[in-house]
Amino acid sequence: MSASGVGMKNKLRRLAVRLYARRVEGRLDTARGPKHIGVILDGNRRWAKAASNSTRQGYQAGAAKIQELLGWCAETDVEVVTLWLLSTDNLGRDPEELNPLLSIVEGAVRNLAADGRWRVNHVGALDVLPERTRRVLLEAEEEAGNREGILVNVAVGYGGRQEITDAVRSLLAKRAAEGQTLEQVADSLGVEDISEHLYTRGQPDPDLVIRTSGEQRLSGFMLWQSAHSEYYFCEAYWPAFRKVDFLRALRDYAARHRRYGI
């Protein structure tokens, strides 16, 4: 097939996808949609490899996709979006890969704060991050933490087990400062006591968790908060995630009967 023929075929394919996306969107009942969506942005490196690009280009493409996703969320009734940008496990990578990744994450957070449409909130352990990254996160919160619009949780230096550990440590320190003994804490401890000390305290738990790249596991993402979440696993790598993929996730969520238990 000639180059012009391939180009025409690609144009027709893109047009068909847009028409299908409009059809799905037209049939969505936003009243039954999720209010809080968690997203595991997976597949940046594999996308880069498949496209013969560098790993850095893969992460840059993934960072650029964030604004698209939030734009799609703004067209629905989504109120909170939690984006897993950097795990605590990522911090153990070789500095030659980690340092460019941190730089891209910092740029993505700055862009979110500068956009003007979103509130920005960091979730994760600040003390495990480099000083420059901590400063970027704190400045973004200060600049965009009290706006109207979707609340965007940027999970940087985040691990689900670490979050629960930090919550328990914070709770014990608070109770000790109030003069309670360990036995008194144990006797009165409830689920909500832990929830009040999570990184996302005061926020609704995620209704829907989306993971891209075809992997079907949470890898520790929001372990406590996702107890009753619905999961949607998408085959597309994160930089290739399309609006039609997002709409399919919402459609799938709306079709489920949530039981909040067994």
Detail the topology: elements first, then pairings:
Blueprint: H1 3-26, E1 36-40, H2 44-50, H3 55-74, E2 80-87, H4 95-115, E3 119-123, H5 131-144, E4 151-158, H6 160-177, H7 182-188, H8 191-195, E5 208-211, E6 230-233, H9 243-255
Parallel strand pairs: 1-2, 1-5, 2-4, 3-4, 5-6
Helix pairs in contact: 1-9, 2-3, 3-4, 4-5
CATH first level: which class? Alpha Beta
Number of strands: 6
- Which percent range fits the helix content? 40-55%
The average pLDDT value, as a whole number, equals: 91
Query: What is the number of helical segments per DSSP (H or I, 4+ residues)?
Result: 9
What CATH architecture label applies?
A: 3-Layer(aba) Sandwich
